[in-house]
# Entry
Amino acid sequence: MFRKILVANRGEIAVRIIRACKEMGILTVAVFSTADRDALHVSLADESYCIGGPSVTESYLNMGAVITAAVVTGSEAIHPGYGLLSENSVFAALCDQCNIVFIGPSAESIAMMGDKNEARLAMIKANVPVIPGTEILADPDEAERRACDIGYPILIKARSGGGGRGIRLVKAKDELRRNFQAAAAEAEKAFGDPGLYLEKYLTGVKHIEMQILADKSGNVICLGERDCSAQRRNQKLMEESPSVAIDDAARAELVGITTAAVKSIGYHNAGTIEYLYDGKDGFYFMEMNTRLQVEHPVTEMVTGIDLVQWQIRIAYGLVIPFTQQDIELKGHAIECRINAEDPEHDFRPQCGTIETLHIPGGPGVRFDSAVYRGYAIPPYYDSMIGKLIVHSGSRSEALRKMHAALCELVIGGIAHNADLQRRILKDKRFISGKYDTGLISSMILKPEVRTDVK
Ligand code: ADP
Ligand code: ADP
Ligand code: MG
# Structure
């Protein structure tokens, strides 16, 4: 096994990876920015090195600095976590060139699936149903013509978009041209790539995704679905596994489609294929995330499989010893993302010091976070400060457990979204399980500013 791994990330996911390494007897190296000197990942790792200034471009996205730290410390592998460099194919290739193992798929797989247009084409080739849509469009004229064929409402999507960004809803023809031009400019600025395509906007659908692990010998295992339909502005807020909308037959279909898709692209390591599901016509491929997912703990809770440890083993070259038949989803798990955002003030990100902190506990309660009492949240990074995860025998028990845990959770000194999460848990549609991706906007937005078109 690897002797030493560098963790090229920060926050809760860096802590999560360091913990997995410790359990496996692997030494860890943390890298950090000048704004993160007091961060938890810095003190938990065996060695820690400052690699640059507060902005991510100066530090966590600085490939030269990260690779240098790995070489100097004798790290044999780099775990990129999620976000930051995790889906950067240039970085994965650079690791290869420097004889450092990138804990993730090949640079080619990252490049292919990170280009949402290429990914759609690859899936069409593998006979996976995709959302009706287009390839990359040359100009607004072409967009107008193609949108007419698909029918409104449509979404304009950025080829290189991610994290819920780079998506625009267009309800009618007269709004298309203006939105197309604005979206291209935005995508160029945010992702350095103005490439856009169109997709039919589906309503009343669920976001269902399948977690996979694939080794370098071609074994592909599906680890159950996650229902991530509770979203605000295309960003997940709450995730659960299994989904009440998926029965055994639908799950078997999803495993079949996903296994074929993953095999067709020769993918290895952990990954997630995201689908929209309407309950009638089945699953439509949306995208593949070629990395560890934020919401991976719900899958860990129901399968009992440590995804981070398996990422490391697969990257080392080990073969997965279990088969699809060995995978059993036990009970029900839910995750709430705790964001330092003020729901009362348009979800403005919060920074400041955590003055009081009480973390709920008890059987089946997990809090993945990097905050502690006295910790000052810096203004430079993601607003997600923790993930509260519960696991119970049934969905109704899990809902009650999550409600109790959210009531117990105390994070004083900054505004956050735990009350909103409690409201979602008490919503009749959420309780029934029959909620779709429009649930949260219908709860928190006045009808005239809703972005869904129901
Ligand atoms: P998940 O599907 O794992 O929940 P998210 O879409 O929430 O993934 O993204 C995971 C993390 O990566 C978030 O911190 C998000 O902000 C970030 N992220 C993902 N893709 C991009 C991107 N293209 N640009 C900027 N941030 C991104
Ligand atoms: P990202 O890379 O930002 O995660 P996705 O393509 O996964 O982008 O889309 C983010 C979210 O936007 C989805 O989870 C879903 O809720 C919504 N969405 C994306 N495509 C469509 C579509 N064609 N119709 C309806 N909703 C969509
Ligand atoms: Mg997505």
Remarks:
- Residues 248-264 form the longest helix (17 residues).
- The first strand starts at residue 4 and ends at 7.
